[in-house]
Amino acid sequence: MQDKNFCTLTSFNSFEELLTKELSFSKSLIKKYISKKKLQSSLREREEVFIPLEILNLGFVNPVYKGEELEILKEDENFIAINKPKGIHGHPLSYGENSTIVNFLRSRNSWSVFLDKSEQAESGLLYRLDHETSGVLIFAKSKEIYQKVRGTFLESAKKKSYLAIVSGEFQLEGKHSHYLESYGEKGARMRSCDSGEREVAIEVSLLKYDEKSDLSLLEIELGQGVRHQIRCQLSTIGFPILGDTLYEGTSSERVYLHAYKYEIRIEDISFEVTSLKDELFLKLFDLNSCF
User: Fold this and answer.
1) In terms of pTM, does the model score above 0.85?
2) Would you give the DSSP letter of residue 142?
């Protein structure tokens, strides 16, 4: 869909007046895409104006996808699971984006969740994976299913298992609990603190230690789940993830964190999916031999 010009039926004191008072767009939104000078300019009756699609289609997902072909791990009438590669975002932050997981799904489907305006950027994704993280990402095909699962996610997500590779021989198997808080520029990082609103936990198991490379493959069971939780907690106990330089990890080809298995169960609905396919992980460990 291309950008469009529109013709005003009446005059306005400013372009901003048209957008905010007549069309009810927020000031914060229009200032992202239109210059201050343009917003302050007056409009004559029947004058032609240009409004960016990012404003007009706020709350909708661009049906154009311009990324790599993605693997569908599993699909039924309620859910679809994608094998997310590293280095791709799960959802767009504006209509102009066209290379996310959600764009891939929208380009191929007209599920009801896509047809109505949404206030949520995720547009059906049941949870988020960091840009650097690979693995299982599950999408609900309808608002009803999305709301049912998200409203009880702690109970309905029966399994949230991740794989991580860390340097050294890991000897701290078991449950690790911390209070976490955001800090740094724009709260870009998380760190552990002495107290907080809620305590989060991970359960860590050693799957394999490779003495030659001095690397350990870990399986992590995620509890409640907050942003960067696994990355921050492993770093806090002295084993940052390989490649995760944001949390003091050794530089590598990628951040070696992979969403390995998710299981959703609520009422009569059940959906379980596993991903053991990631080329860079397989270069370091034979994942199939570790289970």
Assistant:
1) yes
2) S
